[in-house]
Amino acid sequence: MFTCRNQSCGAEWALSDVVIKNEGQGLLFRCPMCGARNYVTRNDADDGTATYEQVTEIPPRGTR
Ligand SMILES: [Zn+2]
């Protein structure tokens, strides 16, 4: 579960709710509700499945 880090939003999303992509500064997803960029890191398990962890050190950007 991800939490939008835009403080005025704070919506929670499952991995299936968001699109994770790389816009040039690392992997992120855009909050479907407010559009904030929330950064994530990808972990590849030994069996090939990818999991994502939210990066909390980088503040959200790009709110509209
Ligand atoms: Zn949001």
Helical content stands at under 10%
How large, in whole angstroms, is the Cα Rg?
A: 12 Å
Shape annotation: globular
Class from helix and strand fractions: mainly beta
Task: Briefly characterize the structure.
The chain has 64 residues and is an all-beta fold. 0% of the residues lie in helices and 38% in strands. The mean pLDDT is 90.
Any key phrases for this structure?
single chain; 64 residues; mainly beta; 4-stranded antiparallel sheet; binds zinc ion; 0% helix; 38% strand; two-stranded antiparallel sheet
Task: Characterise the protein shown here.
- The chain is mainly β and 64 residues long.
- The chain has no helices and six strands.
- The chain has a four-stranded antiparallel sheet, with no helix packed on it. A two-stranded antiparallel sheet has the order 1-2.
- The radius of gyration is 12 Å and the shape is globular.
- It starts with a strand and ends in a 10-residue tail after the last strand.
- The model has no long low-confidence stretch (mean pLDDT 90).
- The structure holds zinc ion.
- Zinc ion is lined by residues 4, 6, 9, 11, 31, 33-34, 36.
